[in-house]
From TrEMBL:
<dbReference type="InterPro" id="IPR000618">
    <property type="entry name" value="Insect_cuticle"/>
</dbReference>
<keyword id="KW-0193">Cuticle</keyword>
<protein>
    <submittedName>
        <fullName>Uncharacterized protein</fullName>
    </submittedName>
</protein>
<dbReference type="Pfam" id="PF00379">
    <property type="entry name" value="Chitin_bind_4"/>
</dbReference>
<dbReference type="InterPro" id="IPR050468">
    <property type="entry name" value="Cuticle_Struct_Prot"/>
</dbReference>
<dbReference type="GO" id="GO:0062129">
    <property type="term" value="C:chitin-based extracellular matrix"/>
</dbReference>
<dbReference type="GO" id="GO:0008010">
    <property type="term" value="F:structural constituent of chitin-based larval cuticle"/>
</dbReference>
Amino acid sequence: MICKHYAAAKPYAFGYTVKDHHGEKHRQESGIGGQHVKGSYGFTDDRGIHRQVDYVADHGGFKASVKTNEPGTANQDPAAVSIHSSAHPYFGAGHGGYAGHAGGHGQGWTGAWGGQGYGWGGHGAYGHGAYGHDGHGLW
């Protein structure tokens, strides 16, 4: 006999903020089971580079809005994500930096500091192109 008893969806909420000499990282999320989730995460590094991602996941799908001043980003809205960039448009693309998925190569900023990339690896974890990963670029 197979029993199919499911508990009712319960509301939840969590959040954290970490501040140190490298900058600040934060995340918060709330929801009701798997029915509706709303949250945000982001960082500000010690140079003032920041990214804030606000998201909602519900029966209509996943929707995210990204606010950033990361060099190399532009106001483009790929795959139902709205991006609001205040970055200077003249920075080159590099190896490292922001990666769209772990192990990927994405738009990055090598800067004048000997090719230092920055960004968070995809899937909510640190990966290739992660924060502090050396970049290889045009500068």
